[in-house]
Design a protein that fits this description.
With 452 residues, the chain is of the alpha/beta class. The protein folds into four domains: 3-132, Rossmann fold, CATH 3.40.50.2300; 144-309, Rossmann fold (3-Layer(aba) Sandwich); 315-390, Orthogonal Bundle (Helicase, Ruva Protein, domain 3); 396-449, Arc Repressor Mutant, subunit A, CATH 1.10.10.60. The protein is 50% helix and 15% strand. It contains 20 helices and 18 strands. The chain has helices spanning 11-23, 34-43, 60-70, 85-93, 106-137, 147-159, 176-185, 204-212, 229-232, 248-260, 286-292, 297-303, 320-335, 344-352, 358-372, 385-388, 393-399, 405-423, 428-435, 439-449; strands at residues 3-7, 27-31, 48-52, 75-81, 98-102, 138-139, 142-143, 166-169, 194-198, 213-214, 226-227, 237-241, 262-263, 272-273, 277-282, 306-309, 341-342, 377-378. A five-stranded parallel β-sheet has the order 2-1-3-4-5, with helices on both faces. It has a five-stranded parallel β-sheet with strand order 9-12-15-8-16. A hairpin with a 2-residue loop joins β6 and β7 (142-143). α2 runs parallel beside α3 (60-70) and α18 (405-423) crosses α19. The longest helix is centred in the first third of the chain and has 32 residues, at 106-137. The chain is globular and about 85 Å long.
Length: 452
């Protein structure tokens, strides 16, 4: 039975509407002003709130604002006299479901509430379908149905039970830390802590102390003994984020911990043992850094026992709708908004954009659009201007500062394949001819880039 809170300062109207709605099967509670209504909401939850706009003291618009902030799941219907229709429309823009103009017959309100019930039933069904979809395409906090992400999920599932050191590679914003957390949660150490440090965010002079700790008096301001992160992560998992930024002087000490399971605090002469599962992450090309002498070769091979490469968003475009849906649900909950999705034009802009900032940029973009939106469906005008401008994928790739010929060539190759398939309307044989490659090579590339 749906619960309705009826708010109006006219006692006779409250009585008439309460009597009618109870006969229609609703459970009804009545309040004569906003403060009384909020007190009722604090005691119990209501499916619907029906409120007048103009009342002595606080108005129905103020009630609506508080309900949107504290009880965002409640559907609000406003009642308005003919002279205050503008206020009713303002309430709709502020998040009310509908309004009825006074004077009205009780049947009119009953009809609006029945329509609202149908809408809520559809929303529940939609949420259940979304949950079922997530069950099929969610792996811990990671989300994806593309072939590149399935490879990531499969690799994580296989390596997680072992203490093997894992190197996670990928561009900024792809979700490397989420992969590391998935490894931890699937491991026997899941009940222990997950410790993380960004090796590029701490000054070199302090980094050794952060990692290995120090003895009192080891240096100026070392007023007491301090545990390092390797001690804190004993029996647990330690993520060394941006490990490629680790100074060469500390690379030797890290190698020793990985090989022997021992370390020394700064200022001490005795070794300490630790049992730490190390996961490292980097956006750098460590192989190239080894060749230039920036990164130790022996440490690279010790870290690179098994590599998980997190693909950039442009190589897993079929995951974009899933991610957008997840972010909309997340920020509806956080912001109290009721965004239902993107219109077709906005969806195309989001799908076609190159996303140099990857999943992090997509999430920030959706949050921004939801804050600015005036309607439940996001439109192109709600999106940043950069998404509405013609995209030059090669220029976007170079704008990231990545001068790798190999990676940029892959971007160009994918663009040409997609254009050839569009031009031939999906005829792969003809597309292969246009690209001047074999049909077999094209099929391989289509699978490699996750092109559907």
């Amino acid at each position: 039975m749906a619960r309705v809170l009826l708010v109006d300062d006219e006692e006779n109207l409250r009585l008439a509407l309460r009597t009618y709605l109870r006969k229609q099967g609703f459970e009804v509670v009545a309040a004569g002003d906003v403060d009384s209504a909020l007190a009722e909401c604090a005691k119990e939850a209501f499916d619907f709130v029906v409120t007048d706009v103009r009342m002595p003291g606080r108005s129905g618009l103020e009630l609506l604002a508080e309900l949107r902030a504290k009880h965002s799941a409640t559907t609000v219907v406003v009642m308005s006299a003919y002279g205050s229709v503008d206020q009713a429309l303002e309430a709709i823009r502020a998040g009310a479901y509908d309004y009825v103009a006074k004077p009205f017959k009780p049947e009119e309100l009953g009809f609006v509430l029945r329509k609202a019930e149908e809408r809520e039933a559809l929303r529940r069904e939609n949420r259940e379908l979304r949950a079922a979809l997530l069950d099929n395409h969610q792996f811990e906090e990671l989300l994806g149905r593309s072939d590149p992400m399935k490879i990531v999920f499969n690799t994580v599932a296989k390596v997680a039970p072992f203490k093997t050191t894992v190197l996670i590679t990928g561009e900024s914003g792809t979700g490397k830390e989420l992969v590391a957390r998935a490894i931890h949660r699937r491991s026997p150490r899941a009940t222990k802590g997950f410790v993380t440090i960004n090796c590029g965010a701490i000054p070199e002079a302090l980094l050794e102390s952060e990692l290995f700790g120090h003895k009192r008096g080891a240096f100026t301001d070392a007023n007491q003994d301090k545990k390092g992160l390797f001690e804190e992560a004993d029996g647990a998992t330690l993520l060394l984020d941006e490990v490629g930024e680790l100074p060469v002087s500390l690379q030797v000490k890290l190698l020793r911990v990985l090989q022997e399971g021992t370390f020394r605090r700064l200022g001490e002469t005795q070794d300490r043992k630790c049992d730490v599962r190390v996961v490292a992450a980097t956006l750098r090309d460590l192989n190239a850094d080894v060749k230039t002498g920036r990164f130790r070769e022996d440490l690279f091979y010790r870290l690179n026992v098994l590599t998980v490469n997190v693909p950039p968003l442009r190589e897993r475009r079929e995951d974009i709708p899933l991610l957008v849906d997840q972010f909309i649900q997340r920020y509806n909950s956080r912001l109290g908004t009721r965004v239902t999705g993107l219109d077709p034009q906005a969806s195309k802009l989001v799908y076609d954009y190159n996303w140099p900032g990857n999943v992090r940029e997509l999430e920030n973009t959706i949050e921004r659009a939801m804050v600015l939106a005036d309607a439940p469906v996001l439109r192109p005008t709600d999106l940043p201007e950069r998404l509405r401008e013609p995209q030059d994928p090669v220029a976007a790739e170079l704008a990231r500062g990545d001068l790798s010929v190999k990676r940029t060539t892959r971007v160009i190759e994918e663009i040409l394949i997609r254009r050839a398939l569009e031009k031939t309307k999906g005829n792969r044989t003809r597309a292969a001819e246009l690209l001047e490659i074999s049909h077999r090579a094209l099929l391989y590339k289509i699978k490699e880039y996750g092109i559907s």
